[in-house]
Amino acid sequence: MFPIDTVxxxxxxxxxxxxxxxxxxxxxxxxxxxxxxxxxxxxxxxLYHNANHGGPFATSRESDALLAQAHCAMADLVGAGGPDExxxxxxxxxxxFALSRALAKTWKPGDEVVVSxxxxxxxxxxxxxxxxxAGAVVRHVDVRVSDCTLDLDSLRSCLGPxxxxxxxxxxxxxxxxxNPIREIAELVHDADAELFVDAVHFAPHRLIDVSAWDCDYLxxxxxxxxxxxxxxxxxxxxxxxxxxxxxxxVAPDDLPERWMTGTPCNxxxxxxxxxxxxxxxxGRACAAAPLARRxxxxxxxTAIEAYENSLCxxxxxxxxxxxxxxxxxxxxxxxxxxxxxxxGLIAEARSPDALSEALGERGIFTWGGNSYALPLTEALGIxxxxxxxxxxxxxxxxxxxxxxIGALSECGLAR
Length: 415
Hints:
The protein is an alpha/beta fold. The protein is 41% helix and 16% strand.
């Protein structure tokens, strides 16, 4: 049994009410709620250990020790070889722009960069702009519009002797599709190119494993997996050490500091450390064993995946019974392993924004629009309205799913 009551007790925000009803947080794909322990860790850092790096005094040494722990924790989360492979930044988008600018310095006119129409625009526009600056050509991998899966034949046709980089998402933030990253990596490396993976949406739902995936770079964001607003960048250490990172003259040139421009958000990094430790403790509780952190994270995500799949199946089946509403993407419960529990919905009776507002008045938090997955909504021909996005996380419940299904009927959709 998944310890849902114990989990929910750690998230104070889940106790919110709207118009006398318990709030239902299905807005997780835009940012999760956080456990009390994460907020406590941030406050404790700011109040008692707040200092800049490298000082010969107590608070600076304490701060540096906490940041070192955070690099180790994030290396465990993504399956990296060591803490020096992890760089922190303002957010995924900023880190991606920094890396794309550095990689562009190694490209030549006529080189090719491949992006996907399934992705968040933060994994498309930075590469398009970098390619423009380098005189490189951009190619786009198509999606199968019937189920919003990546067309691997289209990817194969995009690869060639001039391909330098392929950028794809581990999972779609709009419709939940999970991409076969290992298979994609094999195709990309056979073309002697590099693979950049956006794991922002994937991170709260499944265990990241950069070693098993054999990707070259990966980004994620801690505010999607129960931490504060913070971006995380991993890259193969040999490449990250040799690329022309943009930095000031007095900044260190070794890893990971050469990729962490300016003074970092120390309190955010400490909060991310605590978010990873929260997940590890959940894994130890589910396994009833004192596991090492990486093993504990594996146990946590095994339990999270099974629990979220049960909720997602319930939602797919419930929405499927509502007349006038269709699921964009994978709708077959038998394919539950190919998606995260994030649903994109289109209703005949109301626009996504209007439906999201009506649900919000009933205390159910969702999003309407493209959720910055503009390449996908353009490919599907549903701009500018987009979809209603309802996303589950491991702190949600079957009762909340039922409330959501019932609220769709209350909003004027006949079942």
